[in-house]
């Protein structure tokens, strides 16, 4: 069965500092991987996705993620965090024709 | 281009009452999803439609939940009767097709059952 683990429930970083949010997945075939962001009271917005090819993918708002098959990971990174990045971040895994399974999310707090 | 529209945004009801949520997907999107998001958790799929056909409703509690997408465009999710444990956010999403290239989410309906 497919599953996603986001080990960190909360993360606090200072504005301007770098960020890495962890995501580990379990999937029986080649996974499709996604990162979404959700601001309070809002729906989810797609930051980036990985289907195949280059394992380092670039997304919106300066985010990137790296797919590491050997570690079953798809960690999200940003070199310099802005106060507006404070939100909840969800990693998700799916496949061709299979449902999307989300992790429990990581809440990012940004200190000024 | 308009995004996924959901209404109402908030709903407060007494337990045992019925409630309905409405979703209008992005124009041209054939696939529509309803998700349940409990506090502190990620969304969980309730049902997925390909046009007007429900192709995955294995997670939908069919004793009290129902959904329809009659003309393959907008959709309604209903709960009857509602229970205290149904308090959550109900999210609708749509995508061009079933291959999960990108799901676009609506703002959700926050349901509170008293």
Characterization of this structure:
The complex is a heterodimer of chains A (112) and B (114). Chain A has 112 residues and is mostly beta strands. Helix content of chain A is 0%, strand content 55%. The mean pLDDT of chain A is 93. Chain B is mainly beta and 114 residues long. In chain B, the strands form 2 sheets. In chain B, strands 2, 4, 5, 6, 9, 10 and 11 form a 7-stranded mixed sheet that branches. In chain B, strands 1-3-8-7 form a 4-stranded antiparallel sheet, with no helix packed on it. The radius of gyration of chain B is 13 Å and the shape is globular. The mean pLDDT of chain B is 92. Chain A binds chain B through residues 4, 32, 34, 36, 41-46, 49, 90, 92, 94-100, 102-105, and chain B through 4, 40-45, 48, 56, 91, 93, 98-108.
Task: Please summarize what this structure is.
With 112 residues, chain A is an all-beta fold.
Largest sheet of chain B: 7 strands, mixed
Query: Which sheet architecture does the biggest sheet of chain A show?
Result: 6 strands, mixed
Evaluate the radius of gyration of chain B: 13 Å
| Percent helix of chain B | under 10%
Give keywords.
heterodimer; A: 112 residues; mainly beta; six-stranded mixed β-sheet; four-stranded antiparallel β-sheet; 0% helix; 55% strand; globular; B: 114 residues; seven-stranded mixed β-sheet; 11 strands
Q: What order do the helices and strands come in, and which of them pair?
A:
The complex is a heterodimer of chains A (112) and B (114).
Chain A: E1 3-5, E2 10-14, E3 19-21, E4 24-26, E5 32-38, E6 44-50, E7 56-58, E8 64-68, E9 73-78, E10 87-95, E11 98-102, E12 106-111
Parallel strand pairs in A: 2-12
Antiparallel strand pairs in A: 1-4, 3-9, 5-6, 5-10, 7-8, 8-9, 10-11, 10-12
Chain B: E1 5-7, E2 10-13, E3 19-24, E4 31-37, E5 44-50, E6 53-56, E7 65-68, E8 75-79, E9 88-95, E10 104-105, E11 109-113
Parallel strand pairs in B: 2-11
Antiparallel strand pairs in B: 1-3, 3-8, 4-5, 4-9, 5-6, 7-8, 9-10, 9-11
